[in-house]
Amino acid sequence: MPEIDFDSGADDRLVRRLRTLAEGPAPPERVEERVVAELRARGLLEPRRAWRRLLAAAAAVVLFAGGWLAGRSASDPAPAPPPAATYALFLLGGVEEAANEAELVEEYRAWAVGLARAGELAAGEKLGRAAWLLDGAAGETVLRTAAEAHRAAPLSGFFLLTTGDPEEALTIARSCPHLRHGGEVLLRPIEQT
Amino acid sequence: VGEARLLVRFLAERDEASFRRLYRLHSPLLYRVILRSLGRAALAEDVLQETWVRAVAGLPRFRRDSTLRTWLTGIALRCCHEARRAEPASVADEAAPAPALAPADDSRLDLERAVGELAPGRREVLLLHDVEGFTHAEIAALLAIDEGTSKSQLSRARRQVRERLVAGADPAAPTEVATDARD
Description:
- The complex is a heterodimer of chains A (193) and B (183).
- Chain A is of the alpha+beta class and 193 residues long.
- Chain A has six helices and six strands.
- In chain A, the strands form two sheets. In chain A, strands 2-5-1-6 form a four-stranded antiparallel beta sheet. Chain A has a two-stranded antiparallel sheet with strand order 3-4.
- In chain A, helix 3 runs parallel beside helix 4.
- With 183 residues, chain B is mainly alpha-helical.
- Helices cover 72% and strands 0% of the residues of chain B.
- At the A-B interface, helix 1, helix 2 and strand 4 of A face helix 1, helix 2, helix 3, helix 5 and helix 6 of B.
């Protein structure tokens, strides 16, 4: 004869009541702000970087300028191919919070438009902050933030130049406004394959 | 955006928007567990904050062999245990006072009190299983006990809560009185 579990009915009723406790209480809203502030203070959240927004604006300008150049050549019977990129200009670090963001945007924009109109700029892109490190020895892919991957300064953007002259590329690199706003610039030749 | 994609995005970007979405997704559960484990709202807020700080710092090491919910709950419970050890005079008095609730909800307040009077170990098993829906296997991993211990702790906790409700003349208790009389 099976054993009758007299507890099971009482358990069911109790469990039904206990489940209602999952409806609350909720954490006060102020805790969310405290947590975010603490994570920022400990460097566990990326700071808002004004110059990332500047790069996005500059990249948009380059796209606009590229479109303008493409539009000009569209009337030709045989449109010329876009100039080949010969150097990549990497922007590292940069100003955290701009005192006058509008002025900074204009400075980057003017620089990028000037290069594009002179035919010395093929493209400019803002990079995401993700960095995937493929560690062959460990046999795994490690996902990191750019800040973690690039200990010194995160690689966050680049411009592709079209000049074929290394001295000219260096001159352009020296003229980049990023150098005047706490950033670093890395110039690398692009392999022509 | 699903939780998995949100997690990948936050790991990659460490951005505030993704974090806030993760926070809002999991904090209600974490806060309930912490508050009912410790019983004091001010301390529970501190422990919730510490839980998220540790979680975000340790997120690259999250191996996904459990759900994010379970992994976060484990961190929260460890923070609760540390808080209880750090404040022996007030928190580690075994019983946790009932969290603040709507004054009119007497029946629920009785239930909260009955749960709050359980010893911390039994209370955590009961809350995790019966309130938050964790399995015995998950609870065993979270509390570093075996599944048999989790089941026996749950059985004892339920019985103690029923007895407390009966002793407190809970309006919903008569049927339980009759049932308990046959134990």
